[in-house]
Specification:
This protein has 240 residues and is an alpha/beta fold. It contains seven helices and eleven strands.
């Protein structure tokens, strides 16, 4: 069954169904990381049904966004979401494997690449019986290194790559970034509550950037009483 929801009251509408990976907090968190400007050319690697692309366009309507998605059904949903929101000229989807990115998109064509990659190694736990969930959660068709290499190919010199990952994979991610000439420039840890363990890491890197990493204040999603924090409300587009 298809589900259509709005990012915010009167905002863009996104779609998902049981055949694709469901929308999650990660996409909302990642969408808030990059510094956006009108006219930026953006590539959303592994765009799924298009939520992250729509979240970026919700923040800055002057973007030009191209998604890359391996799953044909998810890519079709993303295209429908673009049409539903009148964004077919600003939001396109290339269906294909990011490991063969050179066959899909031109080199150096983007100012920003953004990616919510699979978090877990294939041997890291029980795999889902659903193909879309397997490939979205486990590195069966895309590793952190694959995503970094694709981003480096797509970016202009000095362009930015923004990614979200699990803290236990931070060393793997940093290694993959540096190997692809993507220098980490900003990092932000995400916690459910103040004092709780870090559960996600947000990183912005720059192609050809010099050394120098800025640690931003932790992003705490909930108050001690379980309510969304002010930062959490902004990320979920719930500002009053």
């Amino acid at each position: 069954m298809e589900h259509w929801e709005s990012i915010s009251p009167g905002g863009y509408r996104f779609v998902y169904d049981e055949a694709v990976f469901p929308p999650g907090t990660d996409s909302f968190l990642l969408s808030a990381l990059p510094r956006l400007k009108a006219g930026m050319r953006v590539c959303d690697l592994g765009c799924g049904s298009g939520l992250l692309s729509l979240l970026l366009l919700q923040r800055q309507q002057g973007l030009d966004v191209t998604g890359v998605e391996l799953d044909e059904h998810a890519a079709a949903l993303a295209r429908r979401a673009a049409a539903e929101n009148g964004l077919t000229k600003q939001m396109r989807v290339a269906c294909g494997d990011l490991r063969q990115i050179r066959a899909l998109l031109p080199a150096g064509a983007f100012d920003l690449v953004i990616c919510n990659p699979p978090y877990y190694a294939p041997q890291g736990g029980k795999l889902s019986a659903r193909p879309s969930l397997r490939t979205a959660r486990a590195e069966l068709t895309c590793t952190a290194e694959d995503a970094c290499a694709a981003a480096a190919y797509l970016l202009r010199w000095g362009g930015s790559f923004c990614v979200v990952h699990k803290p236990e994979r931070l060393v793997d991610l940093m290694t993959g970034l540096r190997a692809a000439r993507l220098e980490p420039k900003r990092i932000r840890f995400v916690r459910h509550r103040a004092g709780s363990s870090v559960n996600l890491v947000l990183i912005e890197s720059r192609l050809g950037g010099g050394p120098g990493l800025q640690f931003e204040p932790d992003l705490v999603l909930y108050t001690q009483t379980g309510e969304l924090s002010a930062a959490g409300r902004r990320i979920y587009h719930l500002q009053e």
